Structure formats: C-alpha cells, structure tokens
Amino acid sequence: MAQPPTSQPPTSLPPIKKHLFTGPMTDKQRVNLDLQDGQVEVVSFLSNASSYPGGVEAVDRIETHGAIVFLAGPRVYKLKRAVRLPYLDFSTVEKRAAACRNELIRNSATAQEIYVGVAAVTRESDQTLKIDGEGEPVDWLVVMNRYEQADLLDTIAGRHELDVALMDPLA
After folding, report:
1. Which of 43, 147, 163, 166 counts the highest number of beta carbons within 10 A?
2. pTM score above 0.90
C-alpha cells in the first residue's frame, strides 16, 4: 500500500450543488457536507465495480457525515469526506491521508482481522484514476476486509439481540 503524502495540498475545494447527506443539522453544516469537486470524480470512480482490483460484481455505498464507504466484493474501502466540522477536519488530502493512517493504527490493534491497510486513489499518466496505482495520489482510502452486515451493531439492535454483555466491552 502507498504511503500518505508529506506535501501540503490545497486547503479547500469549491463546493458542488448537490447534497448527498441530509439530516438534523443547520444549513451551514449541511453546506459543509457537499462533495467537493475533487471528490466527485473519486466517488464516481469508486462506485464503479470495474475500478477494484480483481474485479467485483457490484458496489454498495454507505454514506455518513464523515465518510463514504464502498462495499466491493470481499473488501470495504472507506473514503473520508473532504469536510471541516467542529469535531473533525478532513478538508485536505493530507489531512484525509493522516486520518486514514490513524484509523488503521488505532483499530488494527483490536480488529486486525478487519483492517488491511491504507490505499491511495491515484491519477495515472493517462488521467484515469486507479486504486494504488503509480500516479499521483488524489485521495486516500482505509481498506478493510468485509464482514457480514448482520454483525453490524444497528442490525443486532434491530433484532433485539444487543445486550449488556456485548455493549459493556464496547463502552
């Protein structure tokens, strides 16, 4: 896997018109969650099944306020949104690379079977995007092994199987 950059990229990108996330937040916060121009192309690329190593049949996407998660075959690729909120700042490529690296370091200690590494989305010499290619990194991903959706805490809670024995170690 590629190493995150050390140079300082541009500090901000202009917002686009379409909101991909809505929720109980202020208008100012909602504007901060727009996909930035540089990430529109990356999200489109990552939404395409042919973009992934080894090929996958389909890509499912889960969006949160801070990330877009792509479920692609046996892997999960998490793209940090280019946002700046009071409690997180992923506004630059360098900050997103550092956040990916930090997530890997923190979580692989307790979930090493899930966390695989950090991968660059690169711009190749022919101007196409590639995961962990030879070109210049344009964004970064946390790469994980996929696990059953039935094992997600919200799914377990929906089945009324979330008990203190499971919650206590997570607290």
Report:
1. 43
2. no
